[in-house]
Amino acid sequence: MAGNRPGRVSITQARAGVSSVDRPNTIGLAGRDLAAVLDAFDSAESGGVSPRREFIRWPFRHAGIPVSFAHPGGSLVSLKLAGRNISKGGLSVLHNAFVHPGTECTVQLPKTQGGTLERSAIVSRCIHRRGTLHELGLRFSTPIRLRDFISASTRGDVNSLERVDPSRLRGRMLYAEDNPLDAKIVAHFLRDSSISMVVVGTVEGGLQRLSEQFDVMLIDWRLAGGKGTDLLMAARDQGMMTPAIFVSADPGGLSADPVWKVPGVRMLPKPFTQAQLLQDLGEVLLAENRETATLPVGQDTLPGNLTAEYAKDLVQSLEKSVADQTRDRTVELCYQLRGCGAMLGMKTAAGVADRACAAMGGNASSKDEQGVLRELISACRKDLDRLQDRQG
């Protein structure tokens, strides 16, 4: 091996890697056998976010991924390798022979919707696992679009960045939100960024600002005077392809909305943390521009003077709405409590608000609705008393 030059596979290695046409890959494993090996690797390496890793790794368990390695003399050695995981920047595969880091290759990546993408790569690492089993890390020459290879998660997106440094986030953001506290929370979360935020409280207010240039839109699904989807569709009708992130305390209802047929849309369920917000903004503002950021983010706490006063107003509004029997307003306030209650320090009330939203949005009887609303008001009062006690 000592005489091999980086960027080439030796003849011995090439022969070792050639597999029978009856074998799914060079290690001869597929189905449950391959899954067992990969499960063991994943279990041994389970842990937190790597401080050095740029991109998130997603499972990519394909039994036979075509890879062609550069052979001394200019020819290629074509093999089928077992896939382990994939990221925006590279691929991990299993092979039955050692391959020198620096070896050039070409990969045929299978897409979720059929077909393949050819991407040139280089072997960035070769780790001996056991016996003749080796794991190769292949670094792509240019980043890929993960959505083409990974099915969308329950949040409707596929993230690629491990962590996002808020100081790297720059641009203008249109934020459509009718809950003043939520707007303050987002501003607090973005305090270390260079994002300029324009806040509107209605669909009409958003429509009036569409002529301006924005890098991203953050839109609450439920807005005064309509749904946030109305704002996005109006923007698309005007030819604006600005990426949009929808936030909602009713992710089930939002998921059923046909807005998901529109390109460039992400979903962020409430309540969300600072890390989750920065992650989505990073995917839009950084990942799409092939930039990376890998610094830790701040905490999700809010200044005390921002919570107690608003919580009191929110509870009083709910009590009045229930007493006046204004059902639409009550539903709106329940969703607000469900979305931001925990952030306010009202975790008990947020949990009851979740059940209230389900009751008022389902087939619950009027008696059951009134019962859960009384329970919600009681929980709100207790949480509010605790908040005010802490304020002194």
How far the N terminus sits from the C terminus, by CA atoms, comes to: 73 Å
Rg result: 26 Å
Largest sheet: 6 strands, antiparallel, barrel
CATH class of the largest domain: Mainly Beta
Proper CATH architecture of the largest domain: Beta Barrel
Q: Indicate the structural class.
A: alpha/beta
Poorly predicted regions: 1-20, 289-306
The counted number of beta strands is 14
Helix percent band: 25-40%
**What is CATH's topology name of the largest domain?**
Thrombin, subunit H
- Average pLDDT works out at 79
The overall number of domains is: 3
The backbone outline, from C-alpha atoms, is elongated
* Count of discrete alpha- or pi-helical segments spanning 4 or more residues: 11
Descriptors for this entry?
five-stranded parallel beta sheet; single chain; 22% strand; 11 helices; 37% helix; 392 residues; disordered N terminus; Rossmann fold; Thrombin, subunit H; alpha/beta; six-stranded antiparallel β-barrel; 3 domains
Summarize the structure.
By secondary structure, the protein is of the alpha/beta class.
Tell me what you see in this structure.
The structure is a single chain. By secondary structure, the chain is of the alpha/beta class. It has 3 domains: 11-148, Thrombin, subunit H; 166-289, Rossmann fold; 304-391. The chain is built from 11 helices and 14 strands. The protein has helices at residues 11-17, 31-45, 180-189, 203-209, 228-237, 251-255, 274-285, 304-324, 327-344, 347-361, 366-391; strands spanning 58-59, 65-70, 76-86, 90-95, 104-110, 116-130, 133-140, 170-176, 194-200, 216-220, 222-223, 226-227, 244-248, 265-269. The strands form 3 sheets. A 6-stranded antiparallel beta barrel has the order 2-3-4-7-6-5. Strands 9-8-10-13-14 form a 5-stranded parallel β-sheet, with helices on both faces. Strand 11 (222-223) and strand 12 form a beta hairpin. Helix 4 packs parallel to helix 5 (228-237), helix 8 packs antiparallel against helix 11 (366-391) and helix 9 (327-344) packs antiparallel against helix 10 (347-361). The chain is elongated and about 85 Å long. The termini are far apart. Mean pLDDT is 79; it is low at 1-20 and 289-306.
